[in-house]
Design goal:
two-stranded parallel sheet, about 15% strand
Length: about 110
């Protein structure tokens, strides 16, 4: 859970946690080519997980559990709650499913590609 993708857009720098290194290692080509691409695209991937990330994720998890007990929310993958907590440190997340994050991390700026 120590990986981070930082994407620079016209709106500024956005960070998204991902286990991308291992997944991208499965793609054809050399790891050196991948690193050259990431550096050229100004995409960082070595941001550590912090205690504050854990605490923020716990807050999102608690909001999820509370809403789940009330029957007002469907099941969510735990990974989404961890991603939201991690992205909260950077205040932004690029996601194709912004509604899945908004109710648990209302202060998080969500960007849909």
């Amino acid at each position: 859970m120590n990986d981070l993708i930082t994407v620079v857009t016209e709106r500024g720098q956005t960070s998204i946690p991902a286990r991308i290194r291992k997944q991208l290692n499965l793609l054809p080509g050399q790891i050196a080519d991948l690193k050259r691409f990431l550096i050229g695209a100004r995409i960082g991937w070595e941001e550590p997980w912090t205690l504050a990330d854990t605490e923020t994720s716990h807050g999102g998890w608690w909001r999820y559990v509370s809403q789940k007990r009330q029957g007002s929310v469907a099941r969510r993958p735990v990974a989404d709650l961890l991603i939201g907590g991690f992205a909260s440190r950077f205040r932004r997340l690029i996601t194709r499913n912004p509604a899945d994050f908004k109710r648990f991390y209302p202060a998080l700026t969500l960007i849909s590609p």
